[in-house]
Amino acid sequence: SVHALINAPGLKGKTVTSLSRDGLEDFVMSKNLKTQELEEPFFLLDLGTLVSLMNKWTRSLPSIQPFYAVKCNPNPAFLSALAALGASFDCASKAEIEAILALRVSADRIVFANTCKANAHIRYAASVGVNLATFDSIEEVEKIGRWHPKCALLLRIKPLLDDGVARLPLGAKFGALPEEVVPLLQAARAARLYVAGVSFHVGSVVLDSTAYRGAIAAARAVFDTATELGMAKMNILDIGGGFTAGSQFDETAAIIKAAVNTYFDSELPGLRVIAEPGRFFAETSFTLAANIIGKRVRGTLREYWINDGIYGSMNCIIHHNAPLTAIPFARTSNSVNPTCREAQTYISTVFGPTCDPLDTVLRECQLPEMQVNDLLVFPNMGAYTAASGSSFNGFKTSAIATHLVITPAIAN
Ligand code: PLP
Q1: Are residues 16 and 142 in the same domain?
Q2: How far is the CA of 117 from the centre of ligand 1 (A)?
Q3: Do 6 and 55 lie in a common domain?
Q4: Catalytic residue ranges
Q5: Which residues participate directly in catalysis (predicted)?
Q6: Which atom of ligand 1 is nearest to the CA of 383?
């Protein structure tokens, strides 16, 4: 339960605020923050949301082990909570592996899911016993054969997908083409490496869940190819990421279960199916609050400057075309005025803090009249936000505080 989580290693002793109502308003009202802290941007990490997401995953995909994709949000408290909830981890670099091992997660709960790894990172994986990694090139086979011969491999394939299947397709950079499968399997055999299975990623924010079905069928074909080549039996299917936590998830899970059943289950007992969800766990677990640090009125137009932007947590606008929602949160000088009660709204622009005009967070949105020092609150800000922000103009994304909360409405 969420209360057991509070005592988990890595979280024990941390301040976790139980909120009697949902959300930031209650947190600010609980006076956990000093006025100066409200002037800085900050995240709320809702452990209640995370627990209910893990419950949702386990209920819908009970036999698919989630390897959380650390790149999506490597917040230490978040990683600790996921580890305590039994997640395994997809790491893309030496530093990500180090972060997970520091949580006393065993190396066999890590997949090194970066198809192209630096030699030093491969040597590190070998030294700490991370023995499962993805590949999609002959060069990678050679590197792994040389530096980590005990490593089992997952051949990452590029599923053939229609345009528009995912908001962020990954196929231009990753995955073996169908005609590359045989030479890659042969190269692995020649290097005496065990190819334990197949992985794919149908893209981030999957819009058409049937994409998983085609990819699972393609993976099965690779299992058959390995058998035809007389290679050791494969036993891992890695269905990658791309999941969102909304209502579509149930349909996605049903499609995946049916496809695994159709293409694998009956003939391949002992198959281990794993996934690499990032956004599914991170996105809705985090809420971001930014302070309005400046304002300009031009006729009926309102322009606001906030202290986070596209070079910070909101880089997801540029990289992932993420739609942001801003909830206005007015404060008076000494007390918090929970909502902007004014009915009248104005066409408003919200700028980030840097000197680049590109640093514009919202254009032509409707907001009530806001004042300097009020807050704009952005829900669902956990995926590819803080993880990939910079220090441009001296605004350090890495310095943004994260406060732990539990909202009871969803905690179970
Ligand atoms: N696995 C790999 C190899 C990835 O590159 C990514 C994202 O880029 C993920 C998993 C996580 O994807 P998502 O956040 O869409 O679930």
Answers
A1: no
A2: 16
A3: no
A4: 355
A5: 355 (proton donor)
A6: 14
**412 within a domain of the structure (yes/no):** no
CA of 169 to the centre of ligand 1 (A): 10
CA of 101 to the centre of ligand 1 (A): 20
Where is the domain boundary, 256, 282, 308? 282
ipTM > 0.95?
Answer: yes
Per-residue pLDDT band for 340 (boundaries 50, 70, 90) equals low
Distance of CA 266 to the CA centre of its chain: 32
Do 308 and 278 belong to one domain? no
Tell which atom from ligand 1 comes closest to the C-alpha of 115.
3
In this structure, the residue with its CA closest to atom 12 of ligand 1 is: 241
Q: Residues 17, 84: one domain?
A: no
Q: Locate tokens 């199916």: which residue?
A: 273
DSSP state letters, 221-261: HHHHHHHHTTPPPP-EEE------SSTHHHHHHHHHHHHHI
- For the stretch 144-160, pLDDT in tens is 999 999 999 999 999 98
- Token code pair at residue 37: 């802290």
Q: Give the C-alpha separation, 239 to 261, whole Å.
A: 14
Element (H, E) at 44: strand 42-46
Residue 250 lies in a domain: yes
Half-sphere exposure of 102 (CA within 13 A, CB side): 12
Give the number of the atom of ligand 1 that is nearest the alpha carbon of residue 276. 10
Same domain, 207 and 66: yes
In this structure, the residues whose C-beta lies within 6 A of any atom of ligand 1 are 69, 72, 90, 113, 201, 204, 240-243, 276-280
Cα 278 to averaged position of ligand 1 atoms, centre (Å): 6
Whole domain around residue 234: which residue ranges? 48-282
Report residue 66: phi and psi, to 5°.
-80, 125
Q: What's the CATH code of the domain at 223?
A: 3.20.20.10
Total domains, the chain: 2
> pLDDT at position 6, please?
86
Residues 26 and 59 placed together within one structural domain of the fold: no
Domain assignment present for residue 319? The answer is: yes
Model pLDDT for residues 52-105, shown as the tens digit of each residue: 999 999 999 999 999 999 999 999 999 999 999 999 999 999 999 999 999 999
Nearest CA to ligand 1 atom 8: 204
Secondary structure element (H or E) that encloses residue 345, with its range: strand 345-351
Q: Best substitution site from 72, 173, 384 to test ligand 1's pocket, by max atoms within 8 Å of Cβ? A: 72
